[in-house]
Amino acid sequence: MSSQALNGDGRLVKVGPVRNGVAELMLDRPKKLNSLSHPMIQELKAAYSHYEQVGARCIILRGSGRALCAGGDVAEIRESIIENGRAHADFFFDEYTVDYQIATLYERANIVQVSLWDGIVMGGGVGLSVHSPVRIATEKTLFAMPETSIGLFPDVGGTWALSRLKAGVHVGRFLGVMGQKLGAADCLHAGLATHYCPSDRLVDVQAQLEALGDSANNLDAVSDAIVSVCGDHTPDTAKAMLATNAEAIQRCFGGSPSAEEIAQRLEADGGTWASKTLGTLRKLSPTSVKVTLEAIQRHQAVDLKTAFEMEYRIAQWCMRPQPHSDFCEGIRALLVDKDNKPFWDPARIEDVTNEKVEEFFAPLAAGHPRGELKL
Q1: Of 87, 114, 135, 221, which is most buried with the most CB atoms under 10 A?
Q2: Is 167 exposed, middle or buried (0-12, 13-18, 19+ CB in 10 A)?
Q3: Are the C-beta atoms of 321 and 177 separated by less than 8 Å?
């Protein structure tokens, strides 16, 4: 099937032609900040399969408007849970399958994905891009995995990626638990982004990649091409916070601390950053905080495939109403009623038992509509 055929009326993913081995794939739902719906995920699956079949060597992933992708369409997922439907199971099953297809593109098909973080990159957008070998931040980058604020956890392979950051697993814990928003400088410091490029030079990056020809899937050649365009440019560090607070983050999130220990360390620290962080921690879903810490800890020692399969299991256990999970309440407070006053159950991290956390890692029930994810 041609790229033109994949771009029929109403398509939310624009499949560009392959030029000299290089193709541009664009998420095109700008009014929703390219948030992923189930139809978009299905379009993405078809697009990546198409590029593998036609011999693409490099895929440039970008979003139209102000975002690469601001996440999944979680309000729609909440409705499925309330209606006792199965759409939420299908959404996560297919999303994780596509994310893993993308994550393994280079090793399976020798295709290099270059992800352009030229705007908002959150949640599901992280899943589409963070496992790419090349991730370019710009002055417009706004990266976060804020799932603990909605009763979820940093999924789509996020707990695996956060456990392996260049800056250290303690930084991964901080980012995963707190959902901290990052600009380009912090993304580079953490090791989330691999390159920096001013937004207005991305068109030159694409031209250089297309000029590589047969070397468009050579990682060194791709990196050199990006550096040739953007190498003298560095991100603004005025609002960067990771390096500035490196010692405090290490003190409070280092080792293998429990959520209670993190809270105690933040309180004992006494600094401005620690006090603000503690205040934010107390506003997040206590259950999600503890599940996130446990997932990051476990996924330090497994491969990406295993982490994805476990994250699917955790996500499905999150798709339960309270008191089993905080997800529906988190979405209600943020996106439905928009009162920003979630009532978490339990309300304090000290009241979330280890037994409750373990529930999220248990095998799915026999009657689950999709069963376990097997990649």
Answers
A1: 114
A2: buried
A3: no
Q: Determine which one of 43, 95, 118, 147 is catalytic.
A: 147
Whether residue 93 contacts residue 370, with contact meaning beta carbons closer than 8 Å, is answered with: yes
| 95 is an active site residue | no
**Length in residues, the chain:** 375
User: Which pLDDT value is given to residue 82?
Assistant: 79
When the candidates are 3.90.226.10, 3.30.70.100, 3.90.79.10, 3.40.50.1110, the CATH number that belongs to 3-359 is 3.90.226.10
Name the residue among 37, 36, 38, 43 with its Cα closest to residue 1: 43
* Chain-centroid distance, C-alpha 228: 28
pLDDT in tens, 59-68: 999 999 999 9
- Please report the pLDDT score of residue 8 as a whole number: 67
Which amino acid appears at position 186 of this protein? D
Active site residue 147: yes
Kindly give the pairing relationship between strand 22-27 and strand 13-19: antiparallel
Place of tokens 């689950």: 368
Residue 72 known to be catalytic:
yes
Q: Which of 16, 63, 123, 124 is catalytic?
A: 124
Every domain of the chain and the residues it spans: 3-359
For 302-329, the pLDDT digits (tens) are 999 999 999 999 999 999 989 999 999 9
- Asked if 337 is an active-site residue, the reply is no
Is 311:96 a contact under the CB 8 Å cutoff? yes
pTM for the whole structure = 0.95
